[in-house]
Write a structure and sequence with these properties.
The complex is a heterodimer of chains A (about 250) and B (about 270). Chain A has about 250 residues and is of the alpha+beta class. Helices cover about 30% and strands about 25% of the residues of chain A. Chain B is about 55% helix and about 5% strand. Chain B contains ten helices and six strands. Classes of the chains: A alpha+beta (about 250), B alpha+beta (about 270). At the A-B interface, helix 1, helix 2 and strand 4 of A face helix 1, helix 2, helix 7 and helix 9 of B.
Chain lengths: ~250, ~270
């Protein structure tokens, strides 16, 4: 019988730990294993949607709860000539185009959006990185625009096209119709009582309060109704999903 | 007839306990290491609902040009080589908070870290729930972990604590029954720390905040829940270290085999 000494035991534990780490990296590179891991995200989506009444509101706060500074992340300025010109005009000519599977595709100016019924909400913005900031947002509920443009029956997702590019690719995001019609889902043009700053997505930014920050597309120029996300970008439903493997559903 | 007949005796550890012990050990290790990847995305901790780079962090890992540091409020402890500034396996300097040997995957990917974390969080939570139900059913909790009235006496707890400082008494532990320190540790881990990891984890989810706003409020806000999640994780690491020391002092082979095969209760002289 082999006599196992304490030293041997500790050495083999250390080798085991090293093996575990390289083993994890090997598993991490395996597409099949990634699919197994991703099944948990499917479960998150199903369970989180099943727990509420599906139209449950995210927590809202008071003015006293506001973050002293609202951190900006991702693109801080699209920086294109078109964008800079539009910014100089106070975004008066900013177009929001509703395209794709709408019965009445149409375009709204920023002024037209501002003259519609507005919603103001003080909510907590949760970044996938872990930080949070509380801000007051004012904008037009997306539902009003969807009702005006009338979705076709085959529409399943809403894709948000943006004026900013990251690493040379246009930023985009998408949500399903449940979030599209949610009362807190707005296209915001004001933050903390002032026009939305450029760093935070001027002049229009999506707020989809029950999901993480990367879903909240900035510099929105268009809403496209689609039956499937397959034809958009690389087909995963958003810039970060295509580029870095983040989940399309960002409820956790 | 053999001189010393082998009499089958009851196993020291139930099959469920043994299986869960190792299953749980793997889950917690992966959760810790993938959790450190997630922490690296924003290595700052706050109290309250909000917290970002411009807000006061009670704890942060950071780096300047040549050094890494661990900060508590205004205080900074240099951690170059371990936290905030370390060399990867190719000798390149990295400035992520926790080093590659402590994270899954070993090179930073928040998306992958989250995938590992949530998958293992699910199987860990299901495993813990099943273990709790099974341990009530097979009376493991009532028989082995239940604190008897006299065990709550401070003098009793103090005596047991003193016994743990003597190697001789640790070695003699027959583990026919757990002493009060063991009971308090196991109950504390199974019924307080592990569930706390799940609840604080869920409290950070914006969708859960809409579904169950009370959960986030219970911990005093999302950033507080994140801080408690992190502190509890390190209390579990502390438990693990003490647990390993106790196993090493009390007979590592015997204890480890018992947690694999079940072990046999030994009488005196055997």
């Amino acid at each position: 019988m082999t006599i196992i000494t304490r030293r041997k035991l500790i050495t083999s534990a250390a080798i085991g730990a090293g093996g575990l780490l390289s083993g994890c990296d090997a598993l991490n590179r395996s597409a099949a294993f990634q699919d197994v891991l991703a099944s948990a995200e499917t479960a998150n989506f199903a369970v989180q949607r099943a727990l509420g009444d599906r139209m449950e509101l995210a927590s809202e706060y008071s003015i006293a709860d506001l973050s002293p500074t609202f951190r900006a992340n991702g693109s801080r300025d699209p920086g294109t000539a078109d964008y800079t010109n539009s910014a100089a005009q106070g975004f008066a000519d900013w177009p929001l185009r509703l395209t794709g599977l709408f019965r009445k595709p149409q375009q709204f100016s920023l002024a037209a959006l501002q003259s519609m019924p507005q919603r103001t909400q003080i909510t907590r913005h949760d970044c996938v990185e872990g930080w949070s900031a509380i801000g007051q947002w004012t904008g037009v509920p997306l539902k009003i625009l969807l009702d005006l443009a009338e979705l076709q029956d085959s529409a399943r997702f809403l894709v948000f096209h943006c004026a900013d590019r990251l690493g040379g690719r246009p930023y985009y995001e998408s949500i399903d119709l449940l979030d599209g019609f949610h009362p807190q889902t707005i296209l915001a043009h004001r933050l903390n009582g002032a026009p939305l700053p450029v760093a935070n997505g001027a002049p229009l930014r999506l707020r989809v309060e029950r999901q993480l920050g990367y879903k909240h597309a900035k510099y929105v120029t268009g809403v496209e109704a689609v039956a499937s996300l397959a034809g958009i970008g690389e087909g995963k439903g958003g810039y970060w999903q295509d580029v870095a493997g983040y989940e399309w559903y960002a409820g956790i | 007839m053999p001189e010393h007949p082998i009499i089958p005796v009851q196993a020291r550890h139930h099959l469920t306990t043994r299986f869960w012990h190792w299953f749980n050990a793997i889950c917690l290790l992966v959760l810790l290491m993938s959790g450190l990847t997630i922490f690296n995305a924003h290595p700052r901790l706050y109290w309250g609902e909000y917290g970002a780079n411009n807000d006061y962090a009670w704890m942060a890992v950071g780096s300047s040009d040549r050094m890494g540091y661990l900060g508590f409020g205004e205080m900074r402890i240099e951690t170059t080589g371990v936290l905030g500034n370390w060399q990867d396996s190719e000798g390149k300097t990295q400035k992520w908070a926790f080093p590659g040997w402590a994270t899954i995957p070993s090179s930073y990917s928040l998306a992958d870290g989250r995938r590992w974390h949530f998958f293992f969080a699910w199987i860990f939570s299901v495993g813990l729930t099943l273990f709790m139900i099974r341990s009530l059913w097979n009376r493991h909790i009532q028989k082995d972990l239940h604190m008897r009235k006299e065990e709550w006496r401070p003098s009793h707890i103090w005596r047991s604590l003193r016994d743990h400082s003597k190697i001789a008494t640790i070695r003699q532990s027959s583990a026919k029954q757990y002493n009060v320190i063991q009971k308090l540790s196991y109950v504390g881990v199974i019924f307080i720390l592990l569930p706390l990891m799940i609840w604080t984890g869920l409290a950070m989810s914006p969708a859960m905040d809409a579904n169950w706003p009370l959960l986030t409020d219970l911990f005093g806000g999302r950033q507080s829940a994140r801080s408690v999640h992190f502190i509890t994780a390190f209390l579990l690491v502390l438990f693990f270290l003490v647990h390993i020391v106790m196993v090493l002092l009390s007979g590592p082979i015997r204890q480890t085999m018992a947690m694999i095969t079940g072990g046999r209760e030994m009488g005196a002289g055997q």
